[in-house]
Amino acid sequence: MTSSDGALRVLDERFRDLVPANAELERLWTGGEWVEGPVWMPHENALIFSDIPNDRMMRWSDAEGARVFRHPADKSNGNTLDLQGRIITCEHLTNRVTRTEPDGSVTTLVERYRGCRLNSPNDVVVHSSGVIWFTDPPYGILSEREGRVRESELEGNYLFSFDPGTGLLEVAATDFERPNGLAFSPDESTLYVADSGSRRHIRSFRMTKSSAGLTGGEEFVRIDQGVPDGFRVDVGGNLWSSAADGIHVFDPEGALLGKIPVPEKVSNCEFGGPEGRDLFITASTSLYRVPLEVEGALWSRFAT
Ligand code: MG
């Protein structure tokens, strides 16, 4: 990145080990309205992501470019893969978390807590035990653009865990304003969860043995431009967060190593590409890619 508006912001020399000095941010596609929820499909060499206001999911690959993957898509938002490589999706319009089966059919995993409709599941991650962790802020019930306006049926905006083996849905944390993106540390000892409300921070929880057992929850980092939405963690435990001005990269202790400026407000990012060393970035209306020197923490799950 040599241009003045696209130059990497190196705040710590270790950042140079993560992003090539000559790395160029490439816009792969534009034409969305608010794109989110990128998930890399290693067996297809393709990226799935959501375009929430346009009520569609998109599929992008180097070979074929971008096309509509699903429409209507119930205003889907965050996506991830389960241990079998099936897409797990958060849907605003239907307040549910779904699984897309190999034949393309969609299975509802969870949509209610104690009889009450969830707000609008936002983002999701799968633990190596198979337990699904997701956040449930109200963005999909606050506007018609992102969902459908209605009253919340819950007392708050929770972090949930759901075990698809037992069907057990548990509230893991209640003290969020707007719980949003989430990711595990490489050894899964820590769960990071963003709060995109006024606190603008990412919190750090320690995992315990029980499925919904968490301790801690202290502030890990605060985002100084906009709010943290989605984020990912690399194999070294560095955290790659969305922010209003680009991607902010933090080391496992929370030190800001550097920034990758992006010309549109960033919603989320995802590791992918043939070696797992490309960072795909969903930002407002467009999908971007930047080559890295490091792969994502979940890469080994699906690498052959
Ligand atoms: Mg989000």
How far apart the termini lie comes to 32 Å
- Give the low-confidence spans: 1-5
Strand content of the residues, in percent?
over 45%
User: Based on CA inertia axes, which overall geometry fits?
Assistant: globular
Largest beta-sheet details: 5 strands, antiparallel
> Which ligands, by name, code or SMILES, are bound?
magnesium ion
Please tally the β strands and state the result: 27
Please tell me how large the radius of gyration is. 18 Å
Report helical residue fraction.
Answer: under 10%
Order of helices and strands: EEEEEEEEEEEEEEHEEEEEEEEEEEEEH
Structural class: mainly beta
H/I helix tally: 2
Average pLDDT taken over every residue: 95
Q: Please give the order of strands in the largest beta sheet.
A: 1-24-23-22-21
Quick structural summary:
With 304 residues, this protein is mainly beta. The protein contains 2 helices and 27 strands.
Describe the protein's architecture and organization.
This protein is mostly beta strands and 304 residues long. Helix content is 3%, strand content 46%. The strands form 7 sheets. The protein has a 5-stranded antiparallel sheet, with no helix packed on it. The chain has a 4-stranded antiparallel sheet with strand order 2-27-26-25, with no helix packed on it. A 4-stranded antiparallel sheet has the order 3-4-5-6, with no helix packed on it. Strand 21 (231-233) and strand 22 form a beta hairpin. Mean pLDDT is 95; it is low at 1-5. Magnesium ion binds at residues 36, 77-78, 122-123, 180-181, 229-230.
